[in-house]
Amino acid sequence: MEFHIDRAKVLPKANLWELLEGLKKRYKLIAPVKEGEKFAFREISDVSSVELNYTRTILPPKKFLLPYRRERFSYDPETMEFKSSFKAEEQVIFGIHSCDLHGISILDSIHLKENPDPRYLEVRRKTILIGISCFPDEYCFCLSTGTAFPDGANWDLFLTDVGPDYFVSIGSPKGDEIVLTFKHLFREIEKEDLELYKRSTAKKKRAFNEENLPDLERISQLIELEYDSPVWEEEAKRCLGCGTCTNTCPTCFCYTSVDVPDLTGKEVKRIEFITSCQYPYYSLVAGEHYFKPTRTSRFRHRYYHKFVGYPYQIEKLGCVGCGRCTAECPAGISMVKTIKRLRGVDEKELREVTE
């Protein structure tokens, strides 16, 4: 007996590479590849280099939607005539994990809701997002943030590994179009596929270690109430202020801009580039005033923005539990452990309770 579900299909794993080849012929294909001992999203010329079994990339795929450095426009300083030569390219970002898809959804809320950024909007319209399932390591806490599984409608296809096949969830008309274009590679869902899909979901949930999961119940209230906690200063003493945590974050979007004139002085380019709230100069304003003058205040601000500011602004947590900030921090600072300390959870006591 076959189950015909309009919003899902099955892709045999053997057909995946043909699908990627077909996508590469039609779009710029971006996917994770292995670089040394780590992984990164790169434009793909050879689909055999695509890495499927990875936990996280160094940087999130947001860099292909919101580049770390970009020219916004140029202008003539005498006539003040503005022009922009930007043109978005059609692209497919393949192999995105659920936490990063949620991160893109947050960026969409920031850049497309009240005053849409026309450049970001054009890029998003020409981008296809294809996600793939994964399993957590010791840094992942996406189960706590509610981002362990895809949700919403910001993605187009999502592939869940169910053994010999991928269970393919269809999230948009773009996803429908891909399935229709390559329909010879997909098949209809059968009862066994659905059972395997549900088992895969349950297996991922069981893979999380409770000790690595923070309690985020009323986290906004906790951060507010513990605003003057000594934990902030104690943790900030180890912080290098390097900005690695924000630069690897899927949801951080702080940027600054500079006007760069050419040698003739007849054309000026407005250059925008991603920066970090952890840098001292970021809070510097006219009159030599720093809104966040100390490393402690800047350290605390990141948590405050993720767990208080974002929920107020877009009604979502600003953290997707990807674990990059902890995994890449040169000082070994853990967001999960900081939150547990704020809750008064002693690691030794916690182990005794859970054993």
Descriptive account of the structure:
It is built from 13 helices and 15 strands. The model has no long low-confidence stretch (mean pLDDT 93). Helices cover 34% and strands 21% of the residues. It has 355 residues and is an alpha+beta fold. α7 (219-225) packs antiparallel against α10 (295-314) and α8 packs across α10 (295-314). It is globular, with a radius of gyration of 22 Å. It has two domains: 2-66 and 84-211, no CATH class; 219-252 and 277-354, no CATH class. Strands 2-10-9-8-7-3-4 form a seven-stranded mixed β-sheet, with helices on both faces. The termini are far apart. The protein has helices at 16-26, 98-112, 118-125, 142-145, 173-181, 191-206, 219-225, 230-236, 244-247, 295-314, 324-328, 335-342, 347-354, and strands at residues 2-3, 8-12, 28-35, 38-43, 69-75, 82-83, 91-96, 127-132, 157-161, 165-170, 189-190, 255-261, 268-274, 284-285, 289-290. β3 (28-35) and β4 (38-43) form a beta hairpin.
Give me the secondary-structure topology.
Layout: E1 2-3, E2 8-12, H1 16-26, E3 28-35, E4 38-43, E5 69-75, E6 82-83, E7 91-96, H2 98-112, H3 118-125, E8 127-132, H4 142-145, E9 157-161, E10 165-170, H5 173-181, E11 189-190, H6 191-206, H7 219-225, H8 230-236, H9 244-247, E12 255-261, E13 268-274, E14 284-285, E15 289-290, H10 295-314, H11 324-328, H12 335-342, H13 347-354
Parallel strand pairs: 3-7, 7-8, 8-9
Antiparallel strand pairs: 1-11, 2-10, 3-4, 5-6, 5-13, 9-10, 12-13, 14-15
Helix pairs in contact: 7-10, 8-10
The dominant shape is globular
DSSP strand content: 15-25%
Q: Helix tally?
A: 13
Q: Strand sequence of the main sheet, in spatial order?
A: 2-10-9-8-7-3-4
Which runs of at least 5 residues are low in confidence (pLDDT < 50)? none
Radius of gyration: 22 Å
Q: What is the multimeric organization of the chains shown? A: single chain
Strand segment tally: 15
- Overall pLDDT score: 93
Helical/strand content category: alpha+beta
Sheet having the most strands: 7 strands, mixed
Q: In which range does the helix fraction lie?
A: 25-40%
Number of self-contained structural domains = 2
Measured distance between first and last alpha carbons: 46 Å
Query: What order do the SSEs take from the amino end to the carboxyl end, as H and E?
Result: EEHEEEEEHHEHEEHEHHHHEEEEHHHH
